[in-house]
Amino acid sequence: LDSAVYPVVVDPTFGYTTIGGSTQGTTSPLVCKYTMAAENGDITKLSTYAQANAGTGSLGNAVYADNAVDPTTKLAEDSGNATITTTAQWLDTTLALAVTSSTVYWLGYWLTGDTKHFYDLAGASSNQMRLGSGTFETWPDPFGAGTGFSRQVSIYATYTAAAGMVPYQPNYQRGPILAQ
Q1: Does the N terminus or the C terminus of the chain have fewer Cβ atoms within 10 A?
Q2: Are strands 22-24 and 115-121 parallel, antiparallel or unpaired?
Q3: What is the Cα–Cα distance from 92 to 57, expressed in whole angstroms?
Q4: How far apart are the two ends of the chain, measured CA to CA in Å?
Q5: Distance CA 47, CA 84 (A)
Q6: How many CB atoms lie under 10 A from the CB of residue 17?
Q7: If you ran DSSP here, which 8-state letter would residue 176 be given?
Q8: In terms of Cα–Cα distance, which of 180, 173, 154 is closest to 50?
Q9: Rounded-to-integer distance, Cα 133 and Cα 136, Å
Q10: pTM value?
């Protein structure tokens, strides 16, 4: 911390870290539009708030690029699924993706079984897109045309910020004063 640029943020995130008050069950791939913070970094995991109504299910995650309106190219997908239980909770999957400051990304999630995700209504139009069907974790590339919703889904990316500026450290060594 002696050479850190302050304020120091441990495990910065972007997305929606609030647990939504509404729920919906679906077994189709969904993506949500969020803007990366004002710094470059590397996503290390995605966290999605979900719950099984009965039994268990699986959760998969992916990240897509944006074309100013819709999700487009798949940029990364998780390296293993999370198990959804009857306890509502944040579920993590790991992935690795370098991301650029102030850029829009679509954070994707796909649930199986009798499960549901959590969300709040949002003012922005079509900031969530859903495809009609597919085989679990066979993420389409490109995402394709989907049904749009105005929702803030409880999903966020945790990232490691890129190396920042080196703070000013004055040189305290004194040298001889040279005559002009």
Answers
A1: C
A2: antiparallel
A3: 14
A4: 42
A5: 12
A6: 13
A7: P
A8: 154
A9: 9
A10: 0.84
Residue 156 one-letter amino acid: Y
Residue position matching structure tokens 């441990």? 10
Q: What pLDDT tens digit does each residue of the chain (180 aa) get? A: 455 555 455 579 999 999 999 999 988 999 999 999 889 999 999 999 999 999 999 999 999 999 988 899 999 999 999 999 999 999 999 999 999 999 999 999 999 999 999 999 987 667 899 998 889 999 999 998 888 999 999 999 999 998 754 444 444 444 455 555
Residue with tokens 């959760």: 59
Side-chain half-sphere of 12: how many Cα atoms within 13 Å? 18
Q: Where are the alpha helices (DSSP H) in the chain?
A: none
- As given in the structure block, the two tokens for residue 172 are 């305290």
